[in-house]
Amino acid sequence: MALASANTEIATTGVKFAEGEEKLPKIVLTSAGGSEADIYLFGGCITSWKVPNGRDLLFVRPDAVFNKKKPISGGVPHCFPQFGPGAIQQHGFARNLDWSVIDSENVQGDPAITLELKDGEYSRSMWDFRFQALYKVTLQTKSLSTELVIKNTDSKPFSFSTALHTYFRASAQGASVKGLKGCKTLNKDPDPKNPLEGKEERDGVTFPGFVDCVYLEAPNELHLDNGLGDIISIKNTNWTDAVLWNPYLTMEACYKDFVCVENAKIGNVQLEPGHTGLLHSILASIEEWLITVIQFCRNNVSSIFL
Ligand SMILES: O=P(O)(O)OC[C@H]1O[C@@H](O)[C@H](O)[C@@H](O)[C@@H]1O
Q1: Other beta carbons within 10 Å of 5
Q2: Which residue from 4, 162, 204, 205 has the fewest beta carbons nearer than 10 Å?
Q3: Could you give the 3-state DSSP secondary structure of residue 296?
Q4: How far, in Å, CA of 162 to CA of 29, rounded?
Q5: How much is the pLDDT for 296?
Q6: In this structure, are strands 176-178 and 167-169 parallel, antiparallel, or unpaired?
Q7: Residue 293: count of CB within 10 angstroms of its CB
Q8: Where are the coiled-coil regions (predicted)?
Q9: Of the candidates 239, 237, 236, 225, which has an alpha carbon nearest to the alpha carbon of residue 290?
Q10: ipTM of the assembly?
Q11: Are 100 and 2 in contact (CB under 8 A)?
């Protein structure tokens, strides 16, 4: 189904247009299983993901503005075509532009929407390439999955870096991320322009103060304990890297209430004309007992089968 503008009615079950903050158009997805997600067309930004118990697992900063003068600070903003710092604005322009809805579907009670962003005068003024970005967001009862497809529609090659800069609601003091042990790190604290190389030695990475660290070649599944009673699995295909960020006292009003765990592609991805790159991520709320079983199996699998 092709959808032209924000005013078009969507006939797909579980997918509707609504007025968001400051009357910005947003899409509301509602699954048959009782979960809900909000996606603003401005920035193609998912701002809310409520699981069936009603808890919103994402966080929007209290200083977020919805007037298109700044990107929406919170939820799942895009960083494209640059993660940064770099030649163009920090985190690129995709979070500052209106995306359009081009498709929607509902498969067995699970709604999905596909947004599109293409180059225009504004984007070409800082990054002179023609591209198409397709972003499919699918909501299931306990998970939210995204698929980002970048296509080079130009006649010359280009390269980009990218991230999903996900803000999770958390008690930063009690939060931890598992799965990063052994990864090579680029610590942007104290100097983001000259990150310090290192290796992660911890089983669970915590947020005791300012954190701004890139993890290279991260595994395809991480577990975030948000310190509020939720365990969130963050799975990916092709998002090779991860970034952890908490601004600590530089954002005194809210640093205690969130942590960013970002799927990222830090090294430049080179795309030839006509070629596409695909990045897939699934956030899933999982029960603590399941984590215990997974960990038990990981620790004991060799002894069970030997
Ligand atoms: O643009 P935002 O949402 O304020 O986020 C900024 C932060 O984003 C993080 O991804 C970077 O690693 C930090 O260096 C940066 O300060």
Answers
A1: 11
A2: 4
A3: helix
A4: 25
A5: 65
A6: unpaired
A7: 11
A8: none
A9: 225
A10: 0.96
A11: no
Is residue 25 classed exposed, middle or buried when 0-12, 13-18 and 19+ CB atoms within 10 A define those classes? Answer: middle
66 phi and psi, to 5 degrees?
A: -125, 40
Options 2.70.98.10, 3.10.180.10, 3.30.70.3040, 3.40.190.10; CATH of 15-305: 2.70.98.10
Domain boundaries, the chain: 15-305
> Tens of pLDDT along 33-84?
999 999 999 999 999 999 999 999 999 999 999 999 999 999 999 999 999 9
The response to whether residue 277 sits with its C-beta less than 6 Å from ligand 1 reads no
Retrieve residue 195's tokens: 């990150």
- Our measurement of the distance from residue 180's CA atom to the centroid of its chain's CA atoms, rounded to an integer in Å, reads 18
Q: 61 in ligand 1 pocket by Cβ < 6 Å?
A: no
**Binding site membership of 262 for ligand 1 (Cβ less than 6 Å):** yes
Which residues are bridge partners to 284 per DSSP?
143, 233
* The residue type at 129: F
CA of residue 288 to ligand 1 center, whole Å: 29
At residue 292, the pLDDT reads: 61
**Which of 36, 78, 91, 165 does the annotation list as catalytic?**
165
Is residue 133 a contact partner of residue 120, using CB atoms and an 8 Å limit? no
